[in-house]
Amino acid sequence: MTIEFRTDPYPENEALNALWATAWNDAAARDFSLILSRSLTHIGAFDGVRLVGFVNVAWDGGIHAFILDTCVAPEFRRRGIATSLVEMATNVARERGAEWLHVDFEPHLGGFYRNLGFAATEAGLIRLRD
Q1: φ/ψ (deg, to 5) at 28
Q2: How far is CA 58 from CA 72, 75, 81, 121, in A?
């Protein structure tokens, strides 16, 4: 298996929706074009032409950037793909001027993100829709 990592590949909605359906168990189709057009960067992991991993870096237009939507197709997990995605996203965010990189994660992912250099912080969250 040779996985190719691409910076800002702008995958088609069909490819991202297929990955979402397997990685997040969420078959709801979305239009990602507006999201990606506003991102600081996004990184895709490809097995041939198939998108098998993805991470998005949103930003405030200044010094703060935010890791979002890190995901890998289930059959490609535990191969270091997510680690490579986040490492690449971190490097690109730094190169493009971000000074702080934030990430929110569920408790079971704490070790993963700490191993990538993220420090634990307190944050707040409010659900705006049911």
Answers
A1: -65, 120
A2: 19, 27, 20, 19
Topology of domain 4-115 in CATH is Aminopeptidase (3.40.630)
**41-86: per-residue pLDDT in tens?**
999 999 999 999 999 999 999 999 999 999 999 999 999 999 999 9
pTM of this prediction? Answer: 0.92
* Helix/strand/coil (H/E/C) assignment for every residue in 65-113: EEEEEEEECHHHCCCCHHHHHHHHHHHHHHHCCCCEEEECCCHHHHHHH
User: How many Å is the Cα radius of gyration of the chain?
Assistant: 14
How far are the Cα atoms of 5, 17, 55, 76, 114 from residue 47, in angstroms, in the given order?
9, 16, 16, 9, 27
Residue 53 exposed, middle or buried by CB count within 10 Å (0-12, 13-18, 19+): buried
Let me know if 49 is exposed, middle or buried by CB neighbors in 10 A (0-12, 13-18, 19+).
exposed
3-state secondary structure of 55: strand
